[in-house]
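Q: Entry one of two.
A:
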Amino acid sequence: MKDDDFEHTRSVERQRPPKLVEPPARDRADAVPDTSQISLPASSLPAPSLPASSIPASGPPAPAPITKAAEPRRPYRLKMSDGVVVSLDLTIYLGRRPSVPRVASDRRVRLVAVPSIGKEVSATHLELRQSGDAVVATDMRSTNGSTVTVPGSKPRTLLRGESAVVTPGTLIDLGDGNVLEVLSPERVTEPSP
């Protein structure tokens, strides 16, 4: 580097940032006058003028229909081989000694242990979760896989992390006599008057 290049860089002054033309957003709100307290007599307001073609011949418009609030989604259920019914309101992990995987699809989970004398069922064998209006079964990289039989279809074995969407009536065989059945959401009966 030459000496004259060095001198040139030393003599450069820092420029100041440009001044703001308008105040920041939070200050502008203070500058707007409050019109909520102003009241005008109805006679001082100008009458709206609409072209005759825009006025409906049948009179005022009908009121908007009242829509019923959306009913909260009820969870599907899972019937275990011993007859116990478990709600799918949380993600379920099934296995001999289930645990939450490091990368879980949900933070709130339910761990369900199933018996496995022959150790055909892996420690954490299957994940079942409700996703919208569907139930998704995912094999958790189990040793023997999970056999899924959707009504009207041939049995299919999920292996090493495979997933399948299952419907009510689906049977899932984990091994060692552990056959699960996916049940539809429980019906809510309305009280009679």
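Q: Entry two of two.
A:
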Amino acid sequence: MATGQWPTLADLTSRSDSMGKQHIIAEMLSQSVVLHKDTPYRESSEMGGHEFSFRESIPAGAWRQINMGIPYAKSTTGKSRIGLGTLEAYSQVDRLLAEMSGDVERFREGEDVSFFEGMGQTWEENTWYGNTAATPAQFMGLSAFYNTVSTVNAQNAANCIDGGGTGSSNLSFWLIGWGLRTIFMCYPRSTKAGLAMEDKGDTVPGFDSLGNRFEAYTSWFRQMGGICPQDWRYGVRIPNVDVTNAGLAGPNAIDIFATMRQAMLLMPTLTAQSSGITEVDAPDESSPGIRPVWYMNRTGRHWCDVQAMRDRNVLLRLEDYAGKPTMGIDEIPIRVSDQLLTTEARVV
């Protein structure tokens, strides 16, 4: 017995005027989806995952005295693996209903556009909060990697700066240094990156709840991939930023810009203007090719403006990034992602 949902006569009526012409639909549910503008994509080493290696230790050398030798030394490496997820959807419209609309292609397009928006929001939300322990079909999101502020629990906790919030009305600020050897998105081997869409026309039938067939126009959508923090040093999270009267809205709010400057010093290297740290331990380090970007939700962005106006902050400036005017801090652009929550529980 078939399961699913199809547009109905009521849906067609709600999209048409008294003359039967289709309305322009106001996309009231659209949100800011921004990660696709910044994330580099790399083909994974496997169909269902990506395996990568990372340096764990480097030789320090030894002090030598006359007539005394020194031991051989070596570096050590580790290996890890991330899983990939597959997000799919079908859009089906009864052929008769589409013909009744008076403009089959426009009616189908109006329905398909909502899938682009909805799947884009789902993908970005999963990039921040995906958890395969709760939903095995997803890929693991960044919050699952940067999930503690205690260095006793994890080494990468050094890149989680505690914002001080204790309840469940918190947000996070993120600084990501995108790069093909730092943090990037993977797509399965022998496939393509991004959202794929295929118009199957009316060759795929629909089936009602009794299993009876009807002619239907069908569109198919799929995006596959996952996020790989190969070098966790290039991701910094500022969690536990309380948005209530005890936090950002109160008199003792966290100093956003001071904390952001602290976060920028945690990356091994940025531009000289951003952090002043331009040398790293490995001579072939590819980090100068990274693209650092700040991410926050609208609430976090609002309080950045408030603190900038209140304290006459000179860090937040309108600058030109890739030919477009964008607010940023020391050559690092700020993006607003509506998928970042203000209801995060405390990260401990």
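A: Comment on entry two: The helical segments are 9-14, 95-100, 104-129, 142-145, 256-264, 298-310. The radius of gyration is 25 Å.
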